[in-house]
Amino acid sequence: MFPRNQWYVAGLSSELQDKPVARTLLGKPVVLFRGPSGEAAALEDRCCHRQLPLSYGTLEDGGIRCGYHGLLFGPDGKCLEIPGQEKIPSKAFVKPYIVQERNQIVWIWIGQTDDTAPDCEPPEYAVHDNPKYQFKGGLFHYEAPYQLIHDNLLDLSHLGYVHLKTIGGNARLHMSAPTRVEGEGDTVRVVRWMKESAPPPTYTAAWPYKGLIDRWQEIEFNLSYLAIWTGATDAGTEDLADPARGGFHMRGFHGITPETETTSHYFWTIASNSHPDCDDNFPTVYEQTKNTFAEDKVIIEAQYKNMLQFDNPACVDIHVDAGANRARRIITRLNLQTLEQVAAE
Question: How many Å apart are CA 284 and CA 296, to the nearest integer?
């Protein structure tokens, strides 16, 4: 069960090149590609002739050609050509999905039914278009349910224990950092400040701090993605409540899309700024961020494997779980809405 009538992340724009991209999203096999005008397109990943995944095919100017008998399909799912056959049956059609690209992210609309049209535009993530930042991203595939990834990202107290070589820092300081959790509608916001703390390795490699730092973590949860802004200034030099504060910034985009009930796609990017008096630090920031997320993957997959081994025992909540628990309540409510809509049909 997943919330419907939502935009989910299907991929990053940089993934759609000269080959089809096969992906299962919310249990639905989809093939992603670019159409004749360069627009992102998505079809059900099967040829209507003999059911071979269209992702086994090739891309042409007109669309995607099946790799079995050569049927050509346009971005709208209509069959455009059957080699050796002049007449194209009206049933030669593949289900299309509504996709849009925004800020170099590919979004797919998953409606309650095939006829449910979007009632809003895909989310905006303007960081990708901000000249202040460089950004780059990637994809992790998780053998774990998507809400475990939400839990991890909404609770950054784990940094001091899991990410000692990159963005970690003092573990006890992370666990005791003043934390504010707020919510409105389907959004959760978590803000944590760690003043006068020692900079972790990623920060010292990227910015010429003079000593201790004032560090912030701002997390915004939305159903299909999280936006996380972290960074630091030299201790005592700036107001951490000022949205225009300086210092070193790391802005992370985290698109969490269920593949199945027990597996997930994690689309991520990291954006950061460089100090004007230092060499470009972004390659270091990117590599250390990638390593950080790989460490999270190991932890979360081991966590889920152990949950299955012990038959999903009850968990004991502690003070750092407030944001994650609020997000879970939102998803529970949205899933109930989906069930009510199905029952009403």
Answer: 19
Number of domains in the chain: 2
Give the separation between CA 198 and CA 213, rounded to whole angstroms: 6
Helices 146-154 and 282-309, interaxial angle, to 10°?
Answer: 120
Residue 297 token pair: 């993957």
Other Cβ atoms less than 10 A from the Cβ of 12: the count is 21
Distance CA 255, CA 266 (A): 6
Same-domain pairing of 182 and 328: yes
Which one of 59, 81, 110 terminates a domain? Answer: 110
Range of the domain at 137: 126-335
CATH number at residue 310: 3.90.380.10
Q: Please write the tens of the pLDDT for every residue from 133-156.
A: 999 999 999 999 999 999 999 998
Residues 6+ away with beta carbon under 8 Å from 33: 16, 20, 21, 40, 41, 42, 59, 63, 64, 75
**Cβ(119)–Cβ(5) below 8 Å:** yes
| Whether residue 181 is found in the same domain as residue 266 | yes
**How far does CA 152 lie from the centroid of its chain?**
13
Q: Give pLDDT tens digits for 66-117.
A: 999 999 999 999 999 999 999 999 999 999 999 999 999 999 999 988 888 9
Task: Report if residue 345 sits inside a domain.
Answer: no
Q: Is residue 116 part of a domain?
A: no
Phi, psi of 10 (to 5 degrees): -100, -20
For residues 66 and 52, give the distance between their C-alpha atoms in angstroms, rounded to a whole number.
8
pTM of the predicted model as reported, rounded to 2 decimal places? 0.93
| Strand pairing class (72-73; 79-81) | antiparallel
Could you tell me the two tokens for 54? 């269209």
How far is it, in rounded angstroms, from Cα 293 to Cα 285? 12
Tell me how far apart the alpha carbons of residues 75 and 32 are, in angstroms, rounded to a whole number.
10
- Tell me: do 87 and 217 sit in the same domain: no
Residues 135 and 261 in one domain: yes
Residues facing residue 65 across a β-bridge: 58, 72
Q: Are 227 and 251 within 8 A, CB to CB? A: yes
